[in-house]
Amino acid sequence: MARGAGVATIARMCSPSIRTRLKSLSPWALSLVALGCGHDDAPATAACGDPTQVSLPSCSSGADGFSDEACTVLDDAITTRASAQDARAPSVTAPTEGQRVPRATPFTFSWTAPVAARSRLRAPRAMTLADELRRWTTLIPEAEAHCEPFSGRAYELRLRVNGATVLRRQQSATSWTPDGRDWSLIVAGAAGRTVELTVYTALFNNGQIGPSAGPFTPMAARRFVLE
């Protein structure tokens, strides 16, 4: 099948957010996309595209360049190779251990970069077939599709109650004040309970995380009570 016909056929199988990006793919990558779009049991959404699961900055309109695409990379790395190492993990400065946080107004969470943070970015690993498939079959909002590949230190804040995740936040800054929507989700899932806050970090280079660049997380979560 000719490349033009192949693109047209695959476009009909995929969602609108993917169709506009098919022309830049090589023939073997098109085959991978066809596999991902053609399966009836393929997931309709990803956590990084669901703001009730993962809160993200706007890479296109704000100062933080962390994007949906970086989110999928960080999610995969946390799932497959996160390591608990205090010296290479962020240190939470607010809230303090056991602090009672009022639910009336959004709280500002803050943390510091790892003590053993390295100033130099490592060369990214080569893209694999799995990377290419994930990149083109994850549903990414149209508004974020033009953001540049992220480079720099990224963080994930994960808020849990009794082992269940209430909300995650991914960004590059070292403080976060939830907006009204995010704070309402936190209050709904955690008010009156003890919350465990875990902060992960990884170093990105051109949209990828090198083999020694994380993610790292503290040995113990920070606990606070949302009153």
> Regarding quaternary structure, how should these chains be classified?
single chain
Strand content: 15-25%
Helix percentage range: 25-40%
Structural class: alpha/beta
> Which fold does the CATH topology of the largest domain refer to?
Immunoglobulin-like
What's the count of strands? 12
In this structure, how is the largest beta sheet organized?
7 strands, mixed
- Kindly report the average pLDDT value: 79
Low-pLDDT runs: 13-23, 36-45, 118-123, 138-144
| First and last CA, distance | 62 Å
At the first level of CATH, the class of the largest domain is Mainly Beta
The count of helical stretches stands at: 6
- Proper CATH architecture of the largest domain: Sandwich
What is the approximate shape? globular
Number of domains: 2
Helix/strand order, N-terminal first: HHHEHEEEEHEEEHEEEE
For CATH, the homologous superfamily of the largest domain is named as Immunoglobulins
Gyration radius, in Å: 19 Å
